[in-house]
Write a structure and sequence with these properties.
about 130 residues
């Protein structure tokens, strides 16, 4: 397996420290697989990297949501791919992550519903 740089996005402040992070996407080149987001950020005199393997979901999208202080990445969970049907018929669940002090973490506030029976509050603008 090999990895190639597929794309990079404009640098933006993802963790709220006022400094932009470099956003890159790598892919393995396999059918339906595999994409990885790599975020590079400065910490003092060092450069730290954090990654999230989005696998079949491909390149996620960083978006700014109304009322949310930092950009979040919208992606999907394809962990049940091929489980009950073909890949094209696989049900996938969208989710949002953000950059925290130790790398990617679930953007819990975005994922919470305002009331029972509806999707997350951030979904209309997501």
């Amino acid at each position: 397996m090999y990895w190639e740089l597929a794309e990079h996005a404009p640098a933006m402040d993802l963790d709220g420290d006022g400094r932009p992070e470099l956003i890159t996407w790598f892919r393995s080149g396999g059918a339906h697989c595999c994409s990885t987001a790599m975020i590079f950020r400065r910490s003092g005199t060092r450069v730290e990297a954090t990654r999230l393997e989005t696998l079949d979901a491909g390149r996620g999208i960083f978006v700014r949501l109304k009322g949310y202080s930092r950009p979040v990445m919208r992606t999907s969970d394809y962990s049940s791919a091929y489980l009950f049907s073909s890949f094209a018929s696989t049900v996938h669940m969208p989710y949002a992550v953000e950059i925290g002090p130790h790398g990617f973490q679930l953007a819990a506030r975005v994922m919470q519903a305002d009331r029972a029976g509806i999707g997350p509050s951030g979904w209309p603008s997501f």
